Amino acid sequence: MVEMKDLSTGTYVPDWCPGCGNFLILNALKKAVVQLKLNPKDVVVVSGIGCSSKLPQWINVFGYHGVHGRGLPVGTGIKLANKKLHVIVIGGDGDVFGEGMNHFIHALRKNINITLLVHDNQIYGLTKGQTSPTSMTGDRSTSSPRGNAFDPINPIALAVAQKTPYIARTFAGDLKHMTNIFADAISFKGFSFVNIFQSCVTWNKHNTNQWFKERVYDLQAEGYKADNIEKAFKKALEGYEKIPIGVFYKEERPLFEDEHPILKKTPLVKQKLEIDIKRFMEELV
Ligand code: SF4
Q: Which listed residue, 12, 17, 60, 91, has the most CB atoms within 10 A of its CB?
């Protein structure tokens, strides 16, 4: 049975800034894998570019560290090639809602059984503190010294608008909540999206751990049921005075990979190629 120590890459420690929320997110992801008793050989973590996207280096499962904003198409390809794998795509708010926004929107409308975890610290951390798509209006940054002129993107509302099968938010300052949400999202049969509010202690001096702590409240602890899309939309539109965390919406539906005539037979990796690959390659070169 898998234990926390089995998931450590062991050779070197993460180089995130001391106090960064990414440490707890990594810890929660490992705990979720242990809680679900997943075989590490059946798990693939895929990422784009950013501080958060370095995460696959520090969890002992299969990993793919890709290019900016492209974690979702790579994760989708892996899943369609071998649907037996648990595919977890990692990215930050800049990576997923900026460079990768096109992929994000389209992933929301397909029901492919992968999990998307977005480390949302409302800033570009790796590239030294520029305004990101989720930075709050008026917040100052290295790229907006007079304050952000635009309204932040609301990723939860976008997901609700597309009736995404699983939509949740958690907070990196609450390890137990985060672990349970990750485990729930990974075990959910369908596309699951989890937005994680986290602090960037180096560049975001506004949305600190304490700032979130004073505002978050647990939807499920208040008796909210995640089965109504209109109610989910209302919750998604709540501002920053009180921030709901937990599952906003959850509904299992037929999976793309189970409905597709080719994919439903057997995973692509087990299928015989019906083309002459040698001739095909010769035609390309
Ligand atoms: Fe974390 Fe921010 Fe440091 Fe990046 S820059 S490692 S997000 S604290």
A: 91
Pocket test for ligand 1, best of 13, 119, 121 (most atoms within 8 A of CB): 121
Range of the domain at 148: 4-284
Residue whose CA is closest, atom 3 of ligand 1?
Answer: 17
Q: Which of 96, 26, 44, 106 is nearest to 68 (CA)?
A: 96
Structural domain count of the chain: 1
Under the banding of pLDDT at 50, 70 and 90, the label for residue 277 is confident
Q: Which atom of ligand 1 is nearest to the CA of 198?
A: 7
Any ligand 1 atom below 6 A from CB of 94? no
pLDDT in tens, 6-20: 999 986 789 999 999
> Domain of 95: which CATH number?
3.40.50.970
